[in-house]
From TrEMBL:
Protein name: Putative transcriptional regulator
Keyword Coiled coil: yes
Known DNA-binding region: 37-56
GO MF annotation, one: transcription cis-regulatory region binding
Keyword DNA-binding belongs to the record: yes
Cross-referenced InterPro entries: DNA-bd_HTH_TetR-type_CS, Homeodomain-like_sf, HTH-type_TetR-like_transc_reg, HTH_TetR
PANTHER family for the chain: HTH-TYPE TRANSCRIPTIONAL REGULATOR RUTR, NUCLEOID OCCLUSION FACTOR SLMA
Swiss-Prot/TrEMBL keywords: Coiled coil, DNA-binding
SUPFAM superfamilies in the cross-refs: Homeodomain-like (SSF46689)
Domain of life: Bacteria
Domain HTH tetR-type: 14-74
Amino acid sequence: MNTKQRQRQVKPAEVRLDELVTAAQALFLDKGVDATTVGDIVERAGVAKGTFYHYFNAKTDLLPALRERFTHRFLERVSAAVEACGVDDWPGRLTAWFTSSLHAYQVDFQLHDLVYAGHHHDRDNPDLDAVVGQVEAILRDGGDAGAWPVSDWQRLATMAYWSMHGLADAAIARGGVDSDELGAFLSRRFLAMLRGVEN
């Protein structure tokens, strides 16, 4: 019986790792990184300290894992919304990108602020590149399909991203984001610009 109980407690490494990251996320958001100890994290995750040190050298090593989690979930949510649109509905796909990006950002903005503090001005930020690349692909594919004139997709994608991010921050500061309304606003303005763009 005891052997079976011990066997049931053995979990795959990726599950243990996810439990540690989830525990750290909750504690960092609740108490702050400085006030959270490794002991707090392992207690919440239900693992031994040795398990923690198998994956991490210090609690701050969890921050890159949390950044990866935020970016992965953001991209996944936005991709699902975009792919729910018709394959040739380029205005719809762009609107879905704005709306779902705003929603994903609002849902996790506290985690975003925790893990990206000081990272927005990094000249080499692969997470930012991945998100900008997502909207860049929509813009390029729409241009290739003739939905709008061909232009400098990378610059326009950067404009789209920072427009979304800045307006989301402003709306959150005022108490919340109406993702549908703000996404539609951004999409209308951006589509008008795209259709009148000159190289």
